[in-house]
Write a structure and sequence with these properties.
Radius of gyration: 19 Å
Strand content: 35-45%
Distance between the termini: 48 Å
Shape: globular
Number of domains: 1
Helix content: 10-25%
Mean pLDDT: 91
Length: about 300
């Protein structure tokens, strides 16, 4: 079984951005993008933070496509990056006797933060279609005194259409180093037959992770209040949600059936993290689903679907 020989060559999209603190207290950027990735018009938030939306003009990836994102945040800079829409990973191509499932799509993120930098990476969710193969790699280097906030939400299959992952597979590699020490090192590989495992996805199609590497260790009472508030923020949301300490910072996990629930919870956590740092409260990003903004700020009453892991 082979694909037709007249296929278009795979995409090799990339973004490279450097953020620097200007004399007027705002964060300026330099860099560029290669199609199909595109930088949309940035704006400066009230606290001088550079807000940069990224657009994937091709609408999605197929097997063999690659996206590379490289970020550098200089000392004192503040930046927030998000995506305009969900990232779609379509069924693989390039099938052959050697690669019967086809070729993999690849997304790579590399970020380097200097001391005193503050970088927030909160893209919209990734949707892995049936039969798609996605390899995602994230390598983050955080200098002591810098703050990194990153979130990742992935849906395995278009469940609203009754679709599961099928012959597809999702692999994720995440490493975060703070100074000379590793804060997070994770390797994840999921395929359809593993999803029902109660010790894994428990039959749920959506997983999400939010990690905050704080610039300095939090006081015990401060951390306890942050975690307590984060657990209260689960109110009204479906799925299993857990939050715990990370040295220094926190890590939050979502497993459930709703990417919206994961996004709303992570936004509420984002507000609390900003408050702990004494920074301005974040606004609901302009490129996110606008109809969810009210739910994010005003939680509905708790439902029986909410599961608090810890």
């Amino acid at each position: 079984m082979t694909d037709t020989p007249n296929q278009l060559p795979p995409w090799r999209g990339s973004v490279s951005l450097d953020f620097e603190l200007a004399a007027d207290g705002t964060t300026q950027w330099q860099g560029g993008a290669r199609s199909p990735l595109k930088l949309l018009r940035h704006f400066t938030a009230g606290d001088g933070r550079c807000v940069m939306p990224l657009l994937h003009t091709a609408g999605g990836l197929v097997g063999g496509d690659q996206l590379e994102i490289a970020l550098h945040a200089a000392a004192g800079s503040r930046s927030f990056l998000t995506s305009v829409a969900a990232q779609k990973i379509y069924g693989s191509r390039g099938r052959s006797r050697v690669q019967p499932q086809g070729r993999w799509a690849q997304i790579t993120l590399q970020a380097e933060l200097e001391a005193g930098a503050d970088l927030e990476w909160l893209p919209q969710e990734t949707v892995v279609f049936a039969g798609a193969l996605l390899e995602q790699q994230q390598q983050i280097t955080v200098a002591p005194g810098a703050s990194w906030l990153g979130a990742d939400v992935v849906r395995l299959g278009r469940t609203a259409r009754g679709e599961d992952l099928g012959a597809g597979r999702f692999c994720n590699s995440l490493s975060i180093r703070r100074g000379e020490q590793w804060s997070v090192v994770e390797r994840l590989s999921l395929e359809q037959e593993q999803l029902p495992n109660p010790h894994g996805m428990g039959g749920e199609p959506v997983l999400g992770t939010l990690i905050w590497i704080a610039p300095e260790p939090l006081e015990n009472e401060q951390l306890a209040q942050l975690l307590k508030g984060g657990r209260a923020d689960r109110e009204g949301l479906s799925g299993t949600m857990a939050i715990g300490p990370l040295e220094p910072g926190l890590i939050a996990r979502y497993r459930g059936g709703s990417s919206q629930a994961a996004r709303l919870w992570f936004f509420r956590l984002w507000r609390r993290i900003r408050a702990v740092q004494g920074l301005s409260e974040p606004s609901w990003p302009r490129t996110w689903p606008f109809q969810e903004a009210e739910l994010a700020l005003n939680p509905e009453p708790a439902t029986t679907a909410t599961t608090a892991a810890r």
